[in-house]
Amino acid sequence: MSSAAATLSEIVRAAGSHVPRLLGLVEQRLKTLAAGHGPVLAAHAGDTIAAGGKRMRPLLVLLAAGPQAAREPELIAAAASVELIHSATLVHDDVLDGAHLRRGVPTIWAQGGRALAVATGDLLFSRAFSELTAAGSLPAVRSLSRATSALAEGELLQRQDAWNAAVPIERYLLRCELKTARLFEAACELGAQVARLTDAQIAELGSFGRAIGLAFQLLDDVIDVAGPASLTGKQRGADLLDGTVTLPLILARERDAQLAALDLRTITTPEQAEELCARIERTDALAEARARALRVVAEAKCRLDALPLEAGQRQALKLVGDSVADRTA
Amino acid sequence: MSSAAATLSEIVRAAGSHVPRLLGLVEQRLKTLAAGHGPVLAAHAGDTIAAGGKRMRPLLVLLAAGPQAAREPELIAAAASVELIHSATLVHDDVLDGAHLRRGVPTIWAQGGRALAVATGDLLFSRAFSELTAAGSLPAVRSLSRATSALAEGELLQRQDAWNAAVPIERYLLRCELKTARLFEAACELGAQVARLTDAQIAELGSFGRAIGLAFQLLDDVIDVAGPASLTGKQRGADLLDGTVTLPLILARERDAQLAALDLRTITTPEQAEELCARIERTDALAEARARALRVVAEAKCRLDALPLEAGQRQALKLVGDSVADRTA
Predict the structure, then answer these.
(1) How far A40 CA lies from chain B's nearest CA (Å)?
(2) Residue of chain B with shortest Cα separation from A124
(3) Does the first or last residue of chain B, that is N or C, have fewer Cβ atoms within 10 Å of its Cβ?
(4) Residue B100 confidence class, pLDDT cut points 50, 70, 90
């Protein structure tokens, strides 16, 4: 937490004081949107949005746009809408996973049940499109709807791949792209659209976002195996217990014949998961997966040099890349 | 089924042969969209869309637009998108209700589980927005996002009201509006937008759709209590067993002190539900609820007279109203 805060202050130092001010306005807007549908939604959606975390996606929208005084309402709407979509997917994911806690807060699913959680997710989802449409940009709606289609497809692929330890690496990477990278891409596209960049430049900033999102997911999957629980607040190997096969196991299977022969369904207790994680770690798969993520971030940062950004804005976007690369929990 | 078919042929006779041709194109487009995301989705979403029923919402889009040869792609996209949203809500409703069958076909939830069904619903939802955005109309996206927000809000209210037999009639009507009427409204708005009517006329056609949608839901709720199961294919009083309090019970409670004192949670078997339905029927609540729905349809039909529609188009829209009023299963 303190390291993330330090990074944010560095980012602000690079990008300018408009960033924390705009992030504050996005926060207010999200609160207003959550409160605008009666007390039940306010309680549940408000909690979810409040517990939503680091606001990486809205931050990317703001940084990709740069200071846009004349178009602030459009920018705030874009930043709020990507966070609403992110919140919606968290709410639905908690239903899918039967998760009781998220960031230490009881999930909507745990508090109010499946029906409340599915409907709350649907509402957050719809509100995101309303918000963006009210701001009046069709290309923005297009970017967001492409990203939300991808999110759902990624979720479907992940369910299809469940318990399949032999899943090919390309398929795993496609899942990461659909489930995570595309919304990061949309965030950067939305910001670049507000800044009225050319289509080619919008696509290029989008590719930066996509790469950062991919790295974010790769490292998320490393952290699941690396732990420790004391730092992450989660059971080590939680994904594996769920049947979700990620890069560390995919790489480790190539190096350890016993792992290659493993039937994931036999791993059912936290102790077994812990032991499996330790075995994966001994193959050096975690280091390799981490190295792959760092390469992706480095390449993404290079992309920024060709874009017509202000020096501080470029620096701030690179720092977001660094903050993704540095994450350990 | 044969009565509905007869009505469709009457509607076509009034509106013109472009209607069945365009409905065919909408059908094709829906199939393409369902098939465009790999075999898993194609199997599940394809089944859902195919089992989706009467295509009332796309029909309303087409009829509200009238023949629009120059803007057919926009019209098809609008009609397909409302049906995709409708399909998405069916898929999610089946998760919420734990429903095994829909129109005699196993639900996605029953076939593939909660996760697959939530993700499939989310994908259909996203595809609807992509489809509409690709057709390039921001007002259309606005109409649809308003409707989808309403759908989710209605679902939330219904869960909040569950088992509360003393729910006020105004609250019940609000739920019907949110859950059903607003998507009918959006369908008519979308058609009117394609026809480039004025904002006032678009709103007026929207109000027609909203009224038809309200009547549709009122009669749906009457049919749940009226049965018989041999005609509807569903347990009589299925809503009551679910804790969903609808107009027949609300009206019957005003006339029957024993019903007013009833705790709905004590109704747990099909036999008890059947008995409760018979008791509601004896209060004449079903006739009153039906009469209310017919009044709503009659008023809606009157609205059409002030609009600049072709005679055949107006007649066809009125026939849709009649088909809603006539429904018995």
Answers:
(1) 8
(2) B149
(3) N
(4) confident
Average pLDDT over residues A249-265: 94
Task: Calculate what percentage of chain A has a pLDDT beyond 90.
Answer: 64
Q: Do A148 and B141 touch (CB under 8 A)?
A: no
Domain count across chain B: 1
Over the stretch A97-141, which tens digit does the pLDDT of each residue have?
Answer: 777 777 777 777 777 777 788 888 888 899 999 999 888 788 999
Nearest to B116 among A116, A130, A159 (CB): A159
Whether the predicted model's global pTM rises above the 0.80 cut: yes
What's the confidence (pLDDT) of residue B101?
A: 75
Complex ipTM: 0.81
Contacts of A115 in chain B (CB under 8 A): 96, 155, 159
Instruction: State the residue range of the domain holding B115.
Output: 2-326
CATH number at residue A7: 1.10.600.10
Write the secondary structure of chain A as one string of H (helix), E (strand) and C (coil). Answer: CHHHHHHHHHHHHHHCCHHHHHHHHHHHHHHHHHHCCHHHHHHHHHHHHHCCCCCHHHHHHHHHHCCCHHHHHHHHHHHHHHHHHHHHHHHHHHHHHCCCEECCEECHHHHHHHHHHHHHHHHHHHHHHHHHHHHCCHHHHHHHHHHHHHHHHHHHHHHHCCCCCCCCHHHHHHHHHHHHHHHHHHHHHHHHHHCCCCHHHHHHHHHHHHHHHHHHHHHHHHHHHHCCHHHHCCCCCHHHHCCCCCHHHHHHHCCCHHHHCCCHHHCCCHHHHHHHHHHHHHCCHHHHHHHHHHHHHHHHHHHHHHCCCCHHHHHHHHHHHHHHHHCCC
List pLDDT tens digits, range B270-302.
999 999 999 999 999 999 999 999 999 999 999
